[in-house]
Every structure is written in C-alpha cells, then in structure tokens.
Amino acid sequence: MTLLVISPDYASHLLPLATLATAWRDAGDRVVVATGLATDPIVREFGLERYDLALGRGSNARVIRAEDQPAEESDSLRGFFDATRRGMVPTLAYQARERLTDLMWDPVDAGRRTLAAVDAIRPDAILVDHLAFSARLALQTAGVRYADVVLGHPSALPVAGEVYGYPPFWPAAFAPGEDELTELRALCERVSLRFTDEWNRTAAVLDPGASGTADAFREHGDLVLYNYPAELAREDGRMLPPHAFLGSTRREEAPDDQVERWLASVSDFAYVSFGSFLSVRGDVLRRVAEALAEIGMPAAIATGSTPPDELGPIPEGWLVRDYLPQVRLLASARLAVTHGGNNSVTEALGQAVPLLVLPFSTDQFAGAAAIERAGAGRALDPNTAGVPELAAALVAVRDSSNTALLDSIAREQSARPGPVLAYGLAGGLGTPTS
C-alpha cells in the first residue's frame, strides 16, 4: 500500500499528519509526504519520502519569524501579531480579511500540482490537512477520495448555522460587545461568499463540468478525522458530518540528554509553550513566568521566537530554550500553559495534563471554552490577565481540575492511539477517480 500525505509547509501541521502516517510506515507501507522544502528535515526524521508541493507563500520548520518569510507573508504576519495585541475580535477580523491569500493561495496552479502528485505517486490512500483548501478542492473536483484531517477544535469545519471564522462559543474571560460581534459575523459572511466564489471559479477551471458549492468552508473529504478528544466535543451541541475522533497524535521525539537530566532533578513543574506563531508574544510569556515564580512552581518554557532574556529574571533550576521536546515534557508535567493550539492541547490531554489556556486566534477560543466547560483547565484573556490573576488560575488548574475526565481521555488514547484509528479507517478508503 502507498499512502500520500498532503500538508502545508508548516511544522505544526506536518507533525500530527506525519505521526498518523507512522501507522502505515510501521506496517511496511510506502509513505510519501507532499509538502514544501522547509519541512523536509521533519519528513526525513520520520523516515518518510517527500514530494515537493508548496501550498502557500509561507513556511516554517519549527519556529516562525516574520523576518524569515517572503515580503508579503512577512507583512501579513506582522499585521496578525499586532492584531492579537488588540484582542479577540480584532484578531478574528484581521484573519478574515486575510483569508483568500492565506487559505486559497494560487489555487489553480496548486490544484494542478496536487493532481500531478496523485498521478505520479498513485496512492492507495490519501490524508489531507483540512486547511490545504487548494489541494482538497482539486481532489474533490477530480473525484479523488481522501481522508480529511481537521487539526484543531471541530469548529474549524463549520456546520449548519455557523460561518467560518466566527467562534460558536468562547471562554467567559472574553466579553466582546454585541456591536463588535455583529460586525465580525457580517465580515466573516462576506469573506465566506468571496472564498466560495473563488472555490467555484477554480473548480470550473480544473473541470468545466464541476458542480459549484454554496459554502466552500463546509466542504470536506470522504472521511473526516478530527484530531481532537471526543470527550471535549460531546457537549458542544454541534451536528457534525460523518466522522471519527482520533484523540491525539503524540509523536516520537529524539532523546534529549539535557531534558532528561532536568526531569531527574525536578517535580511538579509547569510546561509553557505558545507554539510556532504565538511565541512572539513575549509580553504574555513574561507574565506567565512571573506568575509561576510567584507560586513557587518550576517551569520548562519553550520561548520560540521570543529571546529568553525578555522573560526577565529566571529562577534557578528552570529549563528555558527556544524549542523543547513537548511530548516528553508533558509526560511528566503537573500542568501546561498554552495558547490553545491543536498539538499542545491534544498532547497534554492525551497524557492527563490540565491546561491554562490563553487563546489568541481562530479556533483557539472555541477550544478554550470546551476545556473550561469540561473542567480540563481554565482560560484567561492573554491581553488582560495580570500576574495575580494568572497565579490564581495556575493554582486552580493545578489543584482542582477534573482528574477523572483527564484520566479517562488519557486511557482512551493509550488504548486506541490516533495513528491506529486513522490506519483502520483511512487505509481502506482507496482513491478511485471519476
């Protein structure tokens, strides 16, 4: 069997997809990852083949910095980072306005190159990142069957009554005004119409006989795989398409002697990371570090694009680096502080680690609300939470989270790992063309 994995050229997207692919790799199957050049080292670390397929203008191998991107992407990132400092609604509005260039980049050419990859590789099964819209559009237009992997809260694939980019719910710490919300939803609806027009125009170029869609954001593959714990979605009240929950895709990491020595010397520590993008918010990382110091809790902090000295004085015995083996550290952490990214959330909950979520963008707000509702952690506004409020929340997460739920999620994911589930479901999907 041959598996084709299609991923944007970003580490945070490729890592869970490559981890799913290890089930095929370990079964002796051929695995080809169609992605860009920046993540080639990650593909090789997993022992997989790479087919060159760029699906966007930006990329990153581990940590993203605006200055390392092409000029247009750099400007877009700087605008996004500035928007996160103004709050939830300005950030979501900025992302909505960037949507066409962000998610539908050069769609005709990207679609044709995607179909060329399918023709060259002749896969028996295909896994595609849900956000690879141009690739998914091409596959659907050509009648190629694929499994659609949704990385994030399930609202990343909107259902009836929802509009992409407008959170169906958010944590209590956020209190946007009704006028703000009305304007945001109207903006998201206008963007959705423009995005759908572009989807339909591209489909017609790729296949003049292609049928149009009323909402491109609600389109999905033959099989929808949510990389998310089912336990957190059960009370959402959302009518999902036919799907399966994978729970988590905890990846293997190379041994790190410094980390192992540190783990042997510490207990009851917090793991802190804002991921590839939001690590630029050094002001928030500093307040988190000060709050942890205030409650006397050791920490391992992945600073990403924030220079470590921006955190202020670091207590002796803390582990602070730009990049850390997240899965390994979460295996021993007492709690985690995160922006609410999919990898951080699923890898923490898969190891029964409660969360303090400081969401900045996209589906992070809905995900933070689900965590709070289930008792798997707390959520605060990263722009307004001061050190005392952060310290109190850290103590609450550490001492009063729903341990029964966390243990249940961890047991389920241990018994039925995401890659095993994906292999059983997507392995027999096949990719016949019409």
If you had to describe this structure to a student in words, what would you say it looks like?
InterPro entries: Glycosyltransferase_28, UDP_glucos_trans. Keywords: Transferase. This is UDP:flavonoid glycosyltransferase YjiC, YdhE family. It holds the Pfam family UDPGT. GO terms for molecular function: UDP-glycosyltransferase activity. The chain is of the alpha/beta class and 434 residues long. It has two domains: 2-249 and 417-426, Glycogen Phosphorylase B (Rossmann fold); 257-414, Glycogen Phosphorylase B (Rossmann fold), CATH 3.40.50. The chain is 44% helix and 12% strand. It is built from 18 helices and 13 strands. The strands form two sheets. A seven-stranded parallel beta sheet has the order 3-2-1-4-5-6-7, sandwiched between helices. The protein has a six-stranded parallel beta sheet with strand order 10-9-8-11-12-13, sandwiched between helices. β11 (335-338), α14 (342-349) and β12 form a beta-alpha-beta unit. α3 (71-84) runs antiparallel to α4 and α6 crosses α8 (178-206). The longest helix is centred in the middle third of the chain and has 29 residues, at 178-206. The protein starts with a strand and ends in an 8-residue tail after the last helix.
Give a summary of the structure in a few sentences.
With 434 residues, this protein is α/β, with parallel strands linked by helices. 44% of the residues lie in helices and 12% in strands.
Round the mean pLDDT to the nearest integer and report it. 93
Radius of gyration: 21 Å
Beta-strand content:
5-15%
Globally, the shape reads globular
Count up the domains: 2
Q: What kind of sheet is the major sheet?
A: 7 strands, parallel
The strand line-up of the biggest sheet is 3-2-1-4-5-6-7
Number of strands: 13
SS summary, helix count: 18
CATH topology (fold) name of the largest domain: Rossmann fold
Structural class: alpha/beta
- The protein's oligomeric status is single chain
Name the CATH architecture of the largest domain: 3-Layer(aba) Sandwich
Determine the CATH superfamily of the largest domain: Glycogen Phosphorylase B
Q: Gap between N and C termini, in Å?
A: 21 Å
GO biological process, one term: antibiotic biosynthetic process
Pfam families: UDPGT
Organism: Microbacterium pygmaeum
Protein name: UDP:flavonoid glycosyltransferase YjiC, YdhE family
